[in-house]
Write a structure and sequence with these properties.
Blueprint lengths: L2 H21 L20 H6 L1 H15 L28
């Protein structure tokens, strides 16, 4: 095959990836760097062929970046089944 064929094929491949990114079909912005298999130039394969896995990875990445909610003073008693303990101090009257 002639050399120009491979050059045109590569240009078409890059153009298809660019259009897919522009249209929002794939997301190559690198928001999950270092986490999961979504890294690299072919990371869009999970998004195209395994969309539920891709969505789960996005949710997991968002949850790890969110801080845990802090308790407010009016939360009230917490039970042992939930993994929290309420400590009551006796009055010194």
């Amino acid at each position: 095959m002639p050399t120009w064929f491979w050059i045109v094929l590569g240009a078409v491949f890059v153009a298809v990836i660019a259009v897919a990114q522009w249209r929002g079909w794939i997301d190559l912005r690198g928001t999950n760097q270092g986490r999961g298999s979504g890294n690299g130039a072919l990371g869009f394969a999970d998004e195209v062929f395994h969309p539920t896995k891709h969505e789960a990875q996005k949710v997991a990445a968002a949850e790890t970046e969110l801080p845990a909610p802090a308790p407010t003073p009016g939360d009230g008693p917490l039970d042992l089944d939930s993994g929290r303990v309420k400590i009551e101090l006796a009055d010194e009257d």
